[in-house]
Amino acid sequence: RDERFCGNPLVSGEPHLRFYAGVLLRTPEGLPIGTVCVLDFETRDLKPDQIDSLKVLARHTMSLLELRLSVAKLDQAVEYREQLLGIVSHDLRTPLGAIRMTAEMLAERPDSNPEFVGKSASRIIRSSESMEQLIHDLLDHDSLERNEVRFRIGRTEVSGIFQDLDDRFSGIAREKEIDFRTELKTELPELYCDPERTLQLLSNLCSNALRFTEKGGCVCVSACRAGDDTIKISVEDTGRGIPPGNAKSIFEPFWQVEKNSGGFGLGLSIVKKLAERQAGTVHLDTSWKDGARFVVALPIQQG
Fold first, then answer.
1. Using one digit for the tens of pLDDT, what is the confidence trace for 135-181?
2. Which residue, 19, 33, 125, 217, has most beta carbons within 10 Å?
3. Residue 301: which of 202, 208, 194 has the closest Cα?
4. So what's the pLDDT on residue 206?
5. Looking at the DSSP assignment, which residues form a beta bridge with residue 282?
6. Coil, strand or helix: which one is 284?
7. What residue ranges in 43-193 does DSSP mark as E strands?
8. Could you say which DSSP state residue 250 is in?
9. How far is CA 25 from CA 5, 29, 31, 72, in A?
10. Cα–Cα dist 50/265, whole Å
11. Peptide bond into 15 cis (omega under 30)
């Protein structure tokens, strides 16, 4: 009797359904996700109490689905906590052990020569910096997960960000005997982004590139316009590269190219979130064969 169902194959063909009554299932936000329905091979009418029962069944079904979703989220949270505790206990113990061992050596040799003291102090500083970076990554990741990071979006010059990258990484690259370059071959329009967060995003990529590039290698940051409303910034290195099969998983929290490589494996996850919160994207260019190449796309200031 309802023309909306005349063309349905379950009505026009086997099993030749002749009756349908359904109640829409909606999420708490009002999003429809399905129906609880009654089907029959014969035409019929439902009594008011039967309709009420169907509505009650739909409510119970939705409650059960919400409960199962909540349980799944709790399981995920427990798994996340256990994973985090395991990584923290391992990765923070390593620099702490180095600091303690070096301090004990200094205590046992109070009359050590200046060269030994200098090397020991440098080792303590490096281990402390490593711990500080690990803690920063944890705090940044947690803040992004909770949507607590504030973004100050505005007009931003690409050249200014590139100058900051050069100031930050050129000295580190020289110490490692790596060629670090920032290239802007043409004048580009202004980005529409948070300059501080964009610098953080690109710094994470540059830091990774320098970590996995050997002595004599090269890390290059470049930018170009892509269409009317986007600028693409590439961070390329001549390091060991990343297998194409890992192109998506590398952006998952706690994923690492190499185990025990230092860090929690949160850097690329943070990069992805920082890009997306600014209406941008980031991906691994799997066509790049001479190392790794990450491409960040950010919007251009309009008007």
1. 776 777 677 777 878 889 999 999 999 999 999 899 889 989 999 99
2. 217
3. 194
4. 93
5. 296
6. strand
7. 154-156, 179-183, 191-193
8. G
9. 20, 11, 8, 20
10. 55
11. yes
Q: Using alpha carbons, select from 57, 16, 59, 17 the residue that is nearest to residue 39.
A: 17
Cβ atoms of 270 and 144 within 8 Å: the answer is yes
Helix (H, G, I), strand (E, B) or coil at 55: helix
| Domains, the chain, ordered by start | 3-69 (no CATH), 92-145 (no CATH), 154-299 (3.30.565.10)
What does the pLDDT average to over 177-201? 91
Secondary structure element (H or E) that encloses residue 298, with its range: strand 292-299
CA nearest neighbour of 159 among 122, 120, 130, 185: 185
d(CA 286, CA 242): 8
Distance CA 207, CA 198 (A): 14
Q: Residue 234, exposed/middle/buried by CB under 10 A (0-12, 13-18, 19+)?
A: middle
Q: Do residues 35 and 21 lie in contact, with contact meaning Cβ atoms separated by under 8 Å?
A: no
With b for 16 or more beta-carbon neighbours within 10 A and e for fewer, the 111-135 pattern comes to eeeeeeeeebeebbeebeebbebbe
What is the pTM assigned to this prediction?
0.61
Q: Give the span between the Cα atoms of 214 and 164, in whole angstroms.
A: 23
Contact residues for 157 (Cβ-Cβ < 8 A; gap 6+): 190, 191
Which helix H or strand E contains 131, and what residues bound it?
Answer: helix 114-145
Mean pLDDT for the chain overall: 82
Find the mean pLDDT for residues 258-287: 81
- Three-state DSSP at 205 gives helix
Structure tokens at 289: 């064969």
3-state secondary structure of 7: coil
